[in-house]
Design brief:
Elements: E1 4-9, H1 13-28, E2 32-33, E3 42-47, H2 52-68, E4 75-80, H3 84-91, E5 96-97, H4 106-111, H5 128-137, E6 157-161, E7 163-164, H6 175-178, E8 183-184, H7 187-199, E9 204-208, H8 226-238, E10 245-249, H9 258-266, E11 273-275, H10 283-289, H11 295-308, E12 313-320, H12 327-340, E13 344-349, H13 367-391, E14 396-404, E15 410-415, E16 420-424, E17 434-443, E18 446-455, E19 461-463, E20 484-489, H14 493-508, E21 512-514, E22 521-526, H15 531-551, E23 554-559, H16 560-564, H17 566-572, E24 576-577, H18 586-594, E25 622-625, E26 627-628, H19 639-642, E27 647-648, H20 651-663, E28 668-672, E29 680-681, E30 684-685, H21 686-694, E31 701-704, H22 714-719, E32 728-730, H23 738-744, H24 750-763, E33 768-775, H25 782-795, E34 799-804, H26 822-845, E35 851-859, H27 866-869, E36 883-890, E37 896-902, H28 905-908, E38 917-926, E39 934-938
Parallel strand pairs: 1-2, 1-3, 3-4, 4-5, 6-9, 9-10, 11-12, 12-13, 16-18, 20-21, 20-22, 22-23, 23-24, 25-28, 28-31, 32-33, 33-34, 37-39
Antiparallel strand pairs: 7-8, 14-15, 14-17, 15-16, 17-18, 18-19, 26-27, 29-30, 35-36, 35-38, 36-37, 38-39
Helix pairs in contact: 7-8, 8-9, 9-11, 12-13, 25-26
Length: 939
């Protein structure tokens, strides 16, 4: 049986290309590739050192592989971009450590370990790779490895390396230390490889190098210049019968000359897209980076691009948070982004690389500030890109079709300028070819269009329906199995928001989100606010583990319970335990797992805000996270320990996320956070942030999920009358006893709480107030509880979320000697619930005869039993007056409403029960259910 191999490829397109040659060598030796690394005989990594995160992946992987070595025979290797410091450590961990330029010697290196393969048994002949190895070991240039024919991962797109290494020595970059000085490949080899690829029907070719436009400079007089090389490629294109495009990445601004641009303009096959790294818009930072160009020089290059290639798109790279970068210097980068109007920018936060000069400087820009700058640039990029994309609506473009889009029923490709475009089609024969599309819509970084027909070059357009098969047509890419993921969420609305955002990310990537049945991955978002929450979390996790045992599924546990019981969960068999501040990257973790990579959750970046906009999969109201963590340290609460200290999201991010939610179709936005009244970003307090949210254009309403009764200023109370703000607040009380509130270390008094309620009710007598109450807090006397009960009756909360106190490890209240017996806690909880239920009915009955604006969430199906099984209160029951349920939703006060029509009156008046729409209604009564809902008819 053939021996198998599995290789983890990390990093840039150059590493991917190198991996394709590595694959050829291994398969020539008789190895066969396997997706299942646990079954492989040979395991390797093509490493990347551009960021520490990439190197951490290598250490994580070899740690796992070396454990497997205890149980079976296994050979491991690492190659690619490796810093000297890491190389020394890798020598102790991997069996083989070699430079990619030493690839021809790999068969001999493997055989030195006594590994026998099919190729090693051939005595009559030596492979071409053995010959190359001999040449290399006897002094032949290290570029010999380029003569190895790559095993391409695609049948219509290919990478062709033309240059390796770098002489620029930017102070932040590891490439000169991992790939060496600049070396140009023979132009004869390059042109021969391109001709061979075109002969096999390839349509997209990318020329690769660390600095492609310095091609030939290391061999003056011996080799072509980059412009001359492109000219030779263009001439090949003039004699190639089928349409194709050639791109290159990435050039350096210092070496870009007009001849290159003029050559691109001259030949149709040379793609009209330029990737020109900027890195910073400030000259002092550019000097510190040792970029060897000024902003003015960069500006001159861009001006030449716009003059010679007016239709070309412009991409770039930018680093934020470089050591010493001031706010003013960053502002210049923002201005440069606006000036050059990039179509795409790859923005990275600076991280020091060992050996690079900047690593000796203090990394003095805090991570939180780097993230803010990254988000600011991203927002600007999206605004600029969308403006450009919008200008294309109505235009006809040519695009190369790459494969299925994440959106079902759509294909996806790229325009000549490498802009992503999707279009509705189920014709998979289009994949791997060019089409003509009309642009119909756009997003910040993508386009949408409709298919006009296939495209084979000027004058060779084919009809989209019934066209003959193209000559030299290439097949569709290999399908990747669609994975399914199931989510279970416990606890607060913040958890609900985070789960929905995570689900949206999985859906966008093509995963199937399932509610029941089998799943390849199960994500449990946990809660630990009470002992009951702990039990629910444990039970839910155990059910996921039992299901995963049968399905071999991945189990990911995150949330507050995971923070408190990490070790226990890791030992129980949970695949990944993810902290709250890394929860945002659960998708990255799971997707890497299914791609065969192994990430440790600690390798994920800490980020509590950058969640995607939800899909509406689990609910119709969109949630918007504005704050996380808490600094109050109430004596009963674990939140500061499991969610960390208070942090506020920048207002521009909030507004950007809000706009995305509205664009996704949400009509009610719920602001969420742990302690929102303590929101403060720069000089903007909670009321200032709320005002900016409410001023956003559009037809929508805003609801505040839960707030603490402190730090509320006059402006906040004024905003309660805003027409977009729902007249509902969940205002946390916890106790009506002044003494207990003091023991709880709450930041308010019962008297102060009453003043807040009086002020709200004076402004709007029907304002809906709900609350939380803890009963049985340590030392709570009968008198203390009586004060809480009386408080709940007096303030007439329409709902009281009641829970008996449970000690949380690590909190001060857990050490209190006077713990209240459980039987008394249960009695007190039952009494508060009775008060709550009485208040609820009285409050809801008071709406009869009043108008409400209903947000319709679930229209009733005509065949629903509910449609004719129950009449609203006060109905006559006459045959022609039979009430019919139209749907359910919530009014502006966050009270549930059942909407009824009388006979066909609603339809005759033009009413349509469409989901997620606002409907003006009149309340006709209250249902007789245990949890009564308002009943209404269209106004």
């Amino acid at each position: 049986m053939a021996m198998t191999y599995h290789v983890l490829q990390l990093g840039c397109q150059m590493n991917i290309s190198d991996g394709e040659r590595l694959r050829t060598v291994l398969e020539e030796m008789g190895y066969r590739y396997t997706e299942d690394e646990e079954q492989a005989d040979l395991l390797g990594v093509v490493a990347c050192s551009v960021r520490q995160k990439a190197i951490d992946k290598v250490y994580s992987r070899i740690h796992k592989w070396n454990r497997w070595k205890r149980e079976r025979s296994l050979l491991t290797f690492v190659t690619g971009c490796i810093l000297p410091a890491d190389r020394e450590k890798f020598l102790d961990r991997f069996d083989l450590v070699f430079a990619i330029t030493e690839l021809p010697q790999l068969p001999d290196l493997i055989r030195e370990y006594g590994v026998v393969t099919e190729a090693s048994l051939r005595s009559a002949e030596r492979s071409a790779f053995d010959q190359l190895a001999s040449q290399s070991s006897s002094g032949t240039a290290p570029t010999e490895y380029w003569k190895i024919a790559p095993s391409h991962g695609s049948r219509f797109e290919a990478y062709v390396p033309i240059q390796n290494g770098c002489d620029k020595f930017c102070s932040f970059c590891a490439v000169p230390y991992t790939r060496g000085r600049e070396v140009s490949r023979s132009s004869d080899e390059i042109l021969a490889e391109i001709s061979e690829l075109l002969g096999r029907g390839y349509r997209i070719i990318t020329l690769l190098g660390q600095n492609v436009n310095s091609y030939g400079l290391d061999r003056p007089g011996e080799e072509l210049s980059f412009a001359e090389l492109l000219d030779r490629v263009g001439r090949i294109g003039e004699h190639t019968p089928h349409e194709f495009r050639v791109y290159f990445t990435s050039p350096h601004p210092r070496d870009m000359d007009t001849k290159v641009l003029e050559t691109i303009a001259r030949y149709r096959c040379l793609g009209k897209q330029i990737h020109l790294p900027l890195q910073s818009g400030d000259d002092k930072v550019l000097i510190a980076m040792n970029r060897k160009h000024s902003l003015d020089r960069y500006r001159e290059v861009v001006a030449e691009i716009r003059r010679i290639l007016p239709d070309a798109t412009l991409f770039t790279d930018i680093i934020v948070g470089f050591p010493g970068e001031t706010e003013q210097q960053f502002a210049r980068t923002v201005e440069a982004l606006r000036e050059f109007e990039y179509n795409m920018a790859y923005i990275a936060m600076y991280s020091p690389r060992p050996g690079a000069r900047s690593a000796r400087s203090e990394d003095d820009v805090p991570t939180v500030e780097k993230k803010r700058r990254l988000h600011k640039l991203t927002e600007e990029l999206q605004r600029i890109s969308e403006a450009y994309n919008r200008s294309l609506i109505g235009n006809t473009v040519t695009a190369f079709v790459e494969g299925d889009d994440r959106k079902p029923g759509y294909l996806s490709g790229k325009t000549e300028g490498r802009l992503v475009i999707r279009f509705p089609s189920d014709d998979r024969e289009l994949i791997g070819g060019f089409v003509t599309l009309k642009v119909t819509d756009c997003a910040p970084l993508s386009l949408e269009g409709v298919l006009l027909g296939r495209y084979e070059g000027e004058g060779r357009q084919l009809g989209s329906a019934g066209a003959a098969a193209r000559q030299g047509s290439v097949g569709a890419p290999r399908d990747r199995r669609t994975h399914s993921v199931a989510f279970r969420t416990l606890g607060c609305k913040l958890n609900q928001f985070e789960t929905e955002a995570l689900a949206a990310e999985f859906v966008k990537a093509g995963y199937q989100v399932v509610e029941d049945g089998k799943a390849d991955c199960r994500v449990v978002n946990t809660c630990t606010v009470t002992a009951k929450a702990d039990r629910k979390s444990r039970n839910t996790i155990n059910r996921a583990l039992r299901a995963s045992a049968d399905e071999e599924a991945v189990v990911v546990v995150t949330g507050c319970f995971a923070e408190s019981y990490r070790t226990e969960l890791e030992e129980s068999g949970v695949t990944y335990v993810v902290e709250n501040d890394r929860k945002r990257n659960v998708f990255e973790l799971v997707d890497a797992h299914f791609r065969g990579e192994v990430l440790h959750p600690n390798q994920l970046e800490r980020d509590v805000f950058s969640y995607s906009v939800g899909t509406g999969m689990f609910r119709t109201r969109g949630m918007l996270k504005v704050q996380d963590g808490c600094d109050n340290f109430c004596s009963f609460c674990v939140i500061p320990h499991v969610r960390g200290r208070a942090v506020s999201r920048p207002v521009p991010e909030i507004l950007s996320n809000l706009e995305a939610s509205l664009a996704a179709g949400y009509r009610e936005i719920v602001l969420t956070g742990v302690n929102m009244t303590r929101y403060r970003h720069n000089d903007i307090a909670f009321s200032g942030m709320l005002e900016r949210v409410l001023e956003t254009p559009g037809k929508f309403r805003v609801r505040i999920s839960s707030i603490e009764p402190d730090s509320l200023d006059d402006r906040f109370f004024d905003l309660l009358a805003h027409p977009k703000l729902c007249p509902h607040l969940h205002l946390c009380l916890q106790s009506g006893s002044e003494r207990v509130l003091l023991e709880m270390r709450r930041q308010y008094t019962a008297a102060g709480f009453r003043k807040i309620v009086d002020r709200i009710r004076a402004q709007n007598s029907r304002f809906n107030l709900t609350t939380d109450v803890i009963v049985g807090f340590p030392g709570e006397s009968a008198q203390d509880f009586a004060e809480t009960a009386a408080f709940c009756r007096e303030l007439e909360f329409s709902h009281v979320h009641t829970f008996p106190y449970s000690p949380r490890s690590g909190t001060r209240a857990a050490r209190h000697a006077e713990q209240v017996p459980n039987v008394i806690k249960r009695q007190r909880a039952a009494e508060i619930r009775e008060i709550s239920e009485s208040n609820r009915v009285r409050y809801r009955r008071g709406f009869t005869g009043y108008s409400q604006q209903l947000l319709l969430e679930r229209p009733a199906h005509e065949s629903s039993p509910q449609a004719d099984s129950r009449a609203p209160e006060g109905s006559t029951g006459a045959a022609d007056q039979t009430p019919r349920l139209l749907g359910h939703g919530y009014g502006e006060h966050y009270v549930p409403i059942a909407l009824y029509g009388i006979g066909g009156s609603a339809e005759r008046s033009g009413f349509r029960a469409a989901p997620n729409t606002f409907v003006d209604v009149t309340i006709s009564g209250l249902s007789n259910d245990p949890d009564p809902v308002l009943e209404a008819v269209p106004s």
